[in-house]
Amino acid sequence: MPGKTLYDKLWEDHVVHTEDDGSSLIYIDRHLVHEVTSPQAFDGLRLAGRKPWRVDRNLAVADHNVPTTAREQGIADPVSRLQVETLDNNCAEFGITEFAMADPRQGIVHVIGPEQGATLPGMTVVCGDSHTSTHGASGALAFGIGTSEVEHVLATQCLVQKKAKNLLIKLNGPVGLGVTAKDIVLAIIGNIGTAGGNGYTIEFAGEAIRNLSMEGRMTVCNMAIEAGARAGLVAVDEVTIDYYRNRPYSPKGEHWFMAERYWQRLYSDADAVFDKVIELDATAIKPQVTWGTSPELVAAVDGCIPDPMLEAEAGKRQSMQRALEYMGLQAGQAITDIQVDKVFIGSCTNSRIEDLRAAAEIAKGKKIAGNIKLALVVPGSGLVKRQAEAEGLDKIFIEAGFEWREPGCSMCLAMNADKLEEGERCASTSNRNFEGRQGYGGRTHLVSPAMAAAAAVAGHFIDVRQL
Amino acid sequence: MQAFTLLNGLVAPLDRANVDTDAIIPKQFLKSIRRTGFGPYLFDEWRYLNHGEPEMDCSQRPLNMDFVLNKPHYQGAQILLARENFGCGSSREHAPWALEDFGFRAIIAPSFADIFYNNCFKNGVLPIVLPAETVDRLFKELAEGYRLTIDLAAQTITTPSAATLVFAIDETRKHRLLNGLDDIALSLLHADNIAAYENERAKRAPWLFAGNP
């Protein structure tokens, strides 16, 4: 019998029951809840007179709607306020632990999960949010679900799932200096496309992945969904285990040693069979900048915007043309000639302490360019913010002209007051450059934190490797 | 959930690949804590010439008459013909809620994003995957008043020229959609299995049963 992939092992460990057609009831170890995709699920529970199956497996936080300034004044937008209050009330009614807006642990759901040790290796982790794939960085099977499934997990601690196929993406060799986890994942998406991972769970492997910190691995897995895969994975190693030592929700005492032994088997066997294997040369990856309205429309910073007329496939050509029109760009334009209006450093992709350190290193002792209307730094959690302040990063940003904000999803999807105005162009460390994502008519370029900080200082995209 | 059995419906084409959930229903409408009322905001940024906000009276907003769903002959469409990777992006179930509230009961495309595909089944909306060449042919055939008949039990689509196209679907999903069954009630039939799994797992992984700090 061939060996098992990491995904095979995680799946088998969680099967409660399997139907004849392969649909399985899968047990969920951790359910993360936020304000946007849960109100209708709690309503469903109430209507059916159901209670949560295992209340301690749920952890809630408001992140999408929360303001990043003047928190003590509450939420100004009454619709947003009602949604956050609804989460508070639902958590109180059903006895679910919530990090409320004033809690120092509050932050983006995908930042606080690992930070607290609430999402651990070997777990199944779900949340009504597609970027739940982030938690796969620890060797957990983690994926986003819809609101009906949120209700299903609350009521049964299980989900009905069909097993996905196994895709191995192997990054051979190390990346060069100045090339980050964000550049790796953008290069992968540029290579396989936004539908390349549909129907698969992606395991990221190879030297360039092994060399990443846990936070870098989270950035890569976070964007597995942008490659079409619900879940991304990285095998457990010493980096993983060290990361989870002494986290508030991590196992304690004898449990820690048992967990460590269990986690050490969370890798793909050498003779495991994948449905598909893609190998990429990590040494060839350069800092990346998206130029279109889909994450797959991406170029190296020293490159130019491709010409849609050279694209053979009609559908793709049309998408490229539409993207250029929306983005207000021309084929052949050098990426470094693109000027930006705003800069956003934050989101569940890039708002952890290492991201802020990387951006601060570039911003240190400099000033943002005159054409930059707003440069925001939004830490991923209250604890990230506190750590950054202890290191003096806030002062570096403020002195350079950035605004230092309170934690939340902020301008990644602009559900709060942080947004682009029509036609504004943004260098953003977030994960989606869809039309209108950061504000109606706004134009998003996805980049790494260092590249975003460099664009803020230069006023246009610039290769961080030359700084 | 409403059942899906047989549908004879008008078809509207949306000739774009990678239609994302932000396009299907923009984020400002996700602030609603209700499950209904999203239809007027479906494809909001493409459908209207001005910027939409929650609770806006859409009957007063300027329409983008170039957008396909605003064409008079597609009014009342119940089947959306789409391109590859339809529904990519976020997990928001507001996307199928908006499609369903607008009147769509089926979507035909060469491929769907996984989470969106899954969410459709929870809301009585049938996503049908057909080969890209077949979808392409339907786009070419499509004319004013073009209707398709979808028979879920038989897993067939009948075109106006009486051609029959067969589609694949998981048995479990088909059964639940045909009968409009409640997933949670069905899963709770396995309550004993879930409890047994927990007992066994608590021995193997006791740290997952130690409670929160």
Textual characterization of the structure:
- The complex is a heterodimer of chains A (about 475) and B (about 210).
- With about 475 residues, chain A is α/β, with parallel strands linked by helices.
- Chain A is built from 15 helices and 19 strands.
- Chain A has helices at about 5-10, 40-50, 80-95, 110-115, 145-155, 180-190, 205-210, 215-220, 240-245, 255-265, 315-325, 355-365, 380-390, 395-400, 450-460, and strands at about 15-20, 25, 30-35, 60, 95-100, 125, 140-145, 160, 165-170, 200-205, 230-235, 275-280, 290, 300, 340-345, 375, 405, 425-430, 445.
- In chain A, the strands form 5 sheets. Chain A has a 5-stranded parallel sheet with strand order 5-4-3-6-7. Chain A has a 5-stranded parallel sheet with strand order 17-16-15-18-19.
- In chain A, α2 (about 40-50) packs across α5.
- The longest helix of chain A is centred in the first third of the chain and has 17 residues, at about 80-95.
- Chain A is globular, with a radius of gyration of 21 Å.
- The model of chain A has no long low-confidence stretch (mean pLDDT about 95).
- With about 210 residues, chain B is of the alpha/beta class.
- Chain B contains 8 helices and 7 strands, in the order βααβαβαβαβββααα.
- A 7-stranded mixed sheet of chain B has the order 4-3-2-1-5-6-7.
- The model of chain B has no long low-confidence stretch (mean pLDDT about 95).
